[in-house]
Specification:
Number of strands: 9
Strand order of the largest sheet: 3-2-1-9-6-5-4
Radius of gyration: 18 Å
Order of helices and strands: HEEEEEEEEEH
Length: 122
């Protein structure tokens, strides 16, 4: 009986882990646009909203750098870091919102590499 219960528990846990997936594997954040008028939401890998822009055009609020036509974000400035926008090639979503863009931190200097190591002291 113990063996059957143990293997059932292990199988259920493995199924849960397989079904739980982070958005934008290998990237720091993902961006979703909820509708034509926004909001634009920035999610972490666990689908927590870490930033939100409520403007219809996110290119007009200063948090995003955009293409020349000012229609598509190309970079995000968040918490003193810059992140490059990369199209999401996976069918990811958070809270029912599809993720259109993944964000990778842009390393500007060696100081950017040290900041995360020192964050425990803050």
């Amino acid at each position: 009986m113990f063996t059957k219960t143990f293997f059932s528990t292990v199988a259920a846990a493995a199924l849960f882990v397989a079904s739980a997936s982070a958005i934008c594997p290998g990237y720091k954040f993902g961006i979703s646009q909820a509708g034509n008028n926004g909001p634009w939401q920035v999610f972490d890998g666990s689908c927590n909203v870490v930033h939100q822009v409520t403007a219809k055009n996110p290119c007009t609020v200063g948090v995003f750098d955009c293409n020349a036509a000012q229609t598509t974000p190309t970079k995000l400035h968040l918490n003193d870091h810059d992140y490059a926008c990369v199209p999401d090639v996976n069918p990811d979503s958070c809270n029912g919102q599809p993720i259109q863009v993944c964000l990778q931190q842009i390393i500007r200097s060696a100081i950017d590499l040290v900041k995360p190591l020192n964050s425990w002291a803050e």
